[in-house]
Design brief:
Length: about 210
């Protein structure tokens, strides 16, 4: 009877020792597992936001390329600017990750973050332009390669390297930039504050 009791006590003691060792091991590894889990979640959120931001700039650029008002008058056309702002508002309201994103066009930030305006104080260029050989026109009355009204075509004598013939076209482009701050779920290592994610899309509109 005593031997059975001693055996039972030994078995219980061994079980207690095993449980204690498991608890110690869990206490050591749990913080590392938590950090790895949050790190994976933060990385996934960063990549998702970056992809969303890139898609948003591409959407705005495609709108400008296909908009008759933007193609005809560039960013100096108020209807073009209104259309861009409406699209930006839609993108920011339909995607939570883009709600705090700021969108800009060549010339810097105009108006409040995420809102683009064309005013004299903003000095927003119409687009930027090149000739058929990718050279950027310069001279009086030319801004960012784009000649103003009444300015002689600076690309009139340019030879297109692809065809070997004279190509007087002035090619206009639009560049859309966006930035978004992504905050970590928890602060750890060097990732203690929000990281800036940037995206840019350039497309030809003329």
């Amino acid at each position: 009877m005593i031997e059975k009791l001693i055996g039972s006590l030994r078995l219980a003691f061994r079980s207690f020792q095993g449980s204690g060792a498991a608890a110690v091991e869990f206490a050591i590894t749990a913080p590392l597992l938590v950090v790895l889990a949050f790190g994976a979640a933060d990385y996934g959120a960063l990549m998702t936001n970056a992809a969303s931001l890139e898609g948003a700039t591409r959407s705005v650029a495609e709108y400008v390329r296909n908009s008759p008002q933007c193609v005809a008058g560039g960013l100096s056309n108020s209807a073009c600017i209104t259309g861009i702002n409406n699209l930006v508002s839609t993108l920011k309201s339909s995607a939570t990750s883009l709600s705090s994103a700021g969108f800009t066009l060549p010339g810097g930030v105009c108006g409040s973050p995420g809102t683009i305006t064309a005013t004299t104080t903003c000095s927003l260029p119409t687009n930027f332009c090149t000739c058929a050989d990718n050279s950027v026109p310069t001279g009086a009355g030319i801004t960012n390669g784009c000649p103003g009204s009444g300015v002689t075509n600076p690309c009139a004598s340019i030879t297109n390297p692809a065809t070997g013939t004279t190509d007087p076209r002035i090619l206009q482009y639009i560049e859309v930039q966006a930035t978004l701050t992504v905050n970590p779920l928890i602060s750890y290592g060097t990732y203690t504050s929000g990281k800036s994610v940037n995206a840019q899309t350039t497309t030809r509109i003329q």
